[in-house]
Amino acid sequence: MTYKWPLINNNISEEDKKVLANFILNTDRFTNGPKVKEFENKWSEWLGVKYSVMVGSGAAANYITTAIVRELKGQKGEVIVPPIGWVSDVSAIINTGFTPVFVDVDLETMAISYENIKNAINENTKAIVLVHALGFNGINEKLIELAKEHELILIEDCCESHGATYKGKKVGSMSDMSCFSFYFGHHMTTIEGGMVCTNDYETYQLARMFRSHGMTREADEETHKKYSKPDVNPLFTFAVPGYNMRSTEINAVIGLEQIERLDYNIQMRQKNLDIWLSALDPSKYYTNFFVEGSSNYALPLILNKDNNNIKEVCKILEQQGVEYRIGTAGGGNQARQPYLERYEFLVVGQLDKADYIHDFGLYIGNHPELTEKQIINLCRSLNNV
Questions:
Q1: What was the pLDDT predicted at 307?
Q2: How far is CA 103 from CA 83, 172, 261, in A?
Q3: Is 220 in contact with 206 (CB distance < 8 Å)?
Q4: Distance between CA atoms of 248 and 275, rounded to whole angstroms?
Q5: Which of 85, 152, 336, 342 has the most CB atoms in a 10 Å sphere around its CB?
Q6: Could you tell me if residue 168 is left (phi over 0), alpha (psi between -120 and 50 degrees) or otherwise beta?
Q7: What pLDDT was estimated at residue 329?
Q8: Are 87 and 334 within 8 A, CB to CB?
Q9: Nearest one of 9, 21, 113 to 353, comparing CA atoms
Q10: How far apart are CA 29 and CA 34, in angstroms?
Q11: Quick check: 270 and 296 in contact, CB under 8 A?
Q12: What is the predicted pLDDT for the residue at 293?
C-alpha cells in the first residue's frame, strides 16, 4: 500500500547514491576498514564521547553493551529495563544470562523514572537500561547519581533519539555506554547499522572484541597480551564469546554523507513536534510531554482516558493516507509479548502507564519534509473524534 504520509521516508539522497557508487567503483575493500574508522571518529566528535564502535545494527549494539555488563559484573543478576522500548533491549538481557526487571514509565518522557528505578534496585541489580523512546530525553542528574551510588552500569538506548539533549549534552554521552541505530527510518541512516559509544577505554576494547567474534587482535596490544596463551595462535585468540556484528565500508560511506545533514534533520523534526503538540486538542490527546531537548523521529498520539475511541482515530489516519503503528516503536508494553512466556522476568510495581500507552497510544512518521499545513490539517481531523 502506498501512503501519502508514510511511517518511513527515504532519506538516502541522489548525492548519497553517487558518492557510494563512486566509492564502490574505486575501492578494493568492502568489509570493516578505514571508512568505518573514519565514521566512528566523526560520530564520536558529533556526539561528544571518546570512543565509538560501529556495528551491524542497533540490536547488535544492545547485545554488546549487555554482554559487556556480564564481563564487568559477572554472569548472574538483574537488569532494570523499561517495558516501553524495543524487543532487543529485553532480549539482550535474556541472551546474556540476566533477568529483566520491568518498572513503569512516566508519560511525560516515556522513560522509566528515578523513583521507579530506585524501588527496583537490590543486591542482585547489575545495570539499568534507559530507553529514550520516540526521541524524548529520559536522563537526568538524579538518575546518573543513583547509578553511581549503587555502582550500577547505566546504558542509554538512543536508537530513536539522535541529537536529543540534557543541559546541553547529547543523550548517549552521559552514561557508561550507549546504543544507536542507523536503520532506514531513523534520524540518519547507513541502511542498516548501529553504534556502541563510551568514554571508558576498557569498555571500548571489549566492544571492539565483541563486535568481531571476541578476537583479541581487534583490541589494543595490552589487551591482546592480557589474553595471550603459548598454545593458542595469537591471530585467533578469543577473549570473550562474541559474534560477527561488524558493519561494512559501504554502510560507513553512507553514514559519512548522512551525518552532514543530521543537525538540520533534527531541527526540522523538533519543529514538526512543536506544531503537532500545539495543534492537537489537549482535552482529547495527551500533549504534556517533556519536550525540552527532545529529538523525535516519530510523532506520538496518545488518547486521553475520556477519548478512548482508538478505532475511530485509526479510521481517520487511514482515510488521510497516514501510516501508523499502535503502541510505540516496540509495539507497546514488552512485558505483554509472547516471547517472555518462556523466560524468567520480574515486574516491580504496576505497569499502568506502559499498559495505557500499549492500548491507547499510536505514533506516525516525523519527516523533515513535512509542512506545517500538512500537520495542522491532520490535527484538525483528529480533533473531531
A1: 78
A2: 7, 21, 36
A3: no
A4: 38
A5: 85
A6: left
A7: 78
A8: yes
A9: 113
A10: 9
A11: yes
A12: 93
Grid coordinates representing 82?
523499561
At residue 306, the pLDDT reads: 80
Q: Is 117 within 8 Å of 80 (Cβ atoms)?
A: yes
Q: What cell was used for 289?
A: 510531554
C-alpha to C-alpha distances, 122 to 101, 118, 139, 349, nearest whole angstrom: 11, 9, 21, 14
The CA angle 47-142-73, to the nearest 5 degrees, is: 75
The whole-angstrom separation of Cα 291 and Cα 274 is 8
Which amino acid appears at position 302 of this protein? I
Residue type, 6: P
**Identity of the residue numbered 136:** F
Q: Are strands 169-170 and 165-166 parallel, antiparallel or unpaired?
A: antiparallel
Enumerate helices (H) and strands (E) in the chain, giving the number of each: 12, 13
Q: Domains of the chain (ranges plus CATH)?
A: 14-254 (3.40.640.10), 261-382 (3.90.1150.10)
- Assess contact for 112 and 105: CB atoms under 8 A: yes
Distance in angstroms (rounded) separating the CA atoms of residues 349 and 64: 29
CA distances from 50 to 17, 55, 128, 140, 186 (A): 30, 17, 21, 21, 23
What are residue 154's DSSP bridge partners? 128
- For residue 98, the 8-state DSSP code is P
Contact 129, 79 (CB under 8 A): yes
The length of the chain in residues reads 385
C-alpha cell at 153: 552500569
How many Cβ atoms sit within 10 Å of the Cβ of residue 26? 7
Query: Coil, helix or strand for 253?
Result: helix
Task: For the chain, list residues with pLDDT below 50.
Answer: none
pTM of the model: 0.96
Q: Judge contact between 73 and 53, C-beta under 8 A.
A: no
Q: Measure the CA–CA gap between 19 and 12, rounded to whole angstroms.
A: 11
**Residue 10, SS3?**
coil
Is residue 303 within 8 A of residue 310, CB to CB? The reply is: yes
Integer Cα distance of 217 and 237 in angstroms: 8
Task: Round to whole Å and give the CA distance between 46 and 36.
Answer: 15
Give tens-digit pLDDT for 327-355.
887 889 999 999 999 999 999 999 999 99
Which residue spans within 17-163 are E strands per DSSP?
A: 51-55, 78-81, 99-102, 125-131, 153-157
